[in-house]
Design goal:
Length: 256
C-alpha cells in the first residue's frame, strides 16, 4: 500500500449505508465499514464517516451529502449512486452519470482519492431485473467514462462473475447479503492497493439444486414480501429515507 489515508468519507444510498448486513444491534455494517476496518488494520488507524441514507437518488445524494462530505476534508471518498434511479419509472442514464461525475470532480478538485463501482445486473438475482438490464448497461458505461475523465478509481463490479450467485444477495435481492458486503469490501480494498489476499474472487461451493416448483414459490414469496410493499410506497409517494439519518455523520476513529 503506497498511499496512507487519514480521513475516509462514504456517501451514497442504502448500498453504502450497509443494508442488508446487520450488526446484531439493530444497525448495519456494510462494505464501507468493512473497507474502513481493513484500511485501519493495515495502517494502524483511520478516521471514518458514513453519510449514506437509504432511498436517495443520485441527485438527492449530491444535494444532501456532497457539501457535508467536502467539509470533512477527506483524502479518500467512496461515491456509489444509481440504484434508486435505476428502478424508478422515469430514468435518464446521462443525468445519473452526470451527477456521479459532478461529485467525482468536486472531490478530485479537493485532492481526494475517489473510489466507486458499477452496478450489478439485477437480472442475475431476480427475473424482474430484466426490465432494467439495458438501463444498467447504459448507466455503467457512463460511470466508466466519468471515472476515466475525472481520474477516479472504479471497481467494475458489474462484470464480476460472482454477482450471479444469489448467496451474495439478501432476501430482497436488491441489497448485498453479509457475505456480499464482505466480498465487495475486500475487492475495493484490493482495488486501492490495500494488502490482503484475493479470496473475494474464490467461487462459492456448488449450491443445492432447486426444483421449478421451489423456484416459483420463492418468486411468489419475494413478490409478496418485497415487491408489493415497494410498489405501495411508490404509489403513495413514501420513501424508505423518511426519518432516517446518517449512521456515522462525523469523522470518528475506526475501532481496531
Amino acid at each position: 500500500m503506497t498511499t496512507r489515508f487519514e480521513r475516509y468519507v462514504a456517501i451514497g444510498d442504502s448500498t453504502t449505508e450497509g443494508l442488508d448486513d446487520p450488526d446484531g444491534q439493530g444497525g448495519y455494517i456494510g462494505w464501507a465499514d468493512r473497507l474502513a476496518r481493513r484500511i485501519a488494520h493495515v495502517q494502524g488507524g483511520l478516521l471514518y464517516a458514513n453519510l449514506a441514507v437509504r432511498g436517495l437518488t443520485s441527485t438527492q445524494i449530491r444535494e444532501q451529502q456532497l457539501e457535508a462530505a467536502l467539509a470533512l476534508k477527506p483524502d479518500l471518498v467512496t461515491v456509489v449512486v444509481g440504484m434508486n434511479d435505476l428502478i424508478r419509472p422515469r430514468f435518464d442514464h446521462r443525468l445519473v452519470a452526470g451527477e456521479l461525475e459532478t461529485m467525482m470532480r468536486a472531490f478530485r478538485g479537493a485532492g481526494s482519492t475517489v473510489l466507486s463501482f458499477t452496478l450489478p445486473d439485477l437480472s442475475k438475482s431476480m427475473a424482474i431485473g430484466r426490465l432494467v438490464r439495458e438501463r444498467a448497461l447504459a448507466l455503467n458505461e457512463g460511470f466508466r467514462a466519468a471515472a476515466a475523465r475525472t481520474g477516479s478509481v472504479l471497481f467494475d463490479l458489474a462484470v464480476h462473475p460472482l454477482t450471479a450467485d444469489r448467496r451474495l444477495w439478501a432476501a430482497d435481492r436488491l441489497h448485498a447479503s453479509a457475505l456480499g458486503h464482505e466480498r465487495i469490501g475486500h475487492a475495493l480494498a484490493r482495488t486501492l492497493g490495500v494488502p490482503g489476499d484475493d479470496s473475494y474472487n474464490d467461487p462459492l461451493p456448488a449450491a443445492a439444486a432447486t426444483t421449478r416448483a421451489e423456484v416459483l414459490r420463492a418468486e411468489a414469496q419475494w413478490a409478496r414480501t418485497y415487491l408489493v410493499p415497494w410498489l405501495v410506497r411508490r404509489a403513495t409517494g413514501r420513501s424508505s429515507s423518511t426519518g432516517v439519518t446518517a449512521k456515522r455523520p462525523t469523522l470518528t476513529p475506526v475501532a481496531l
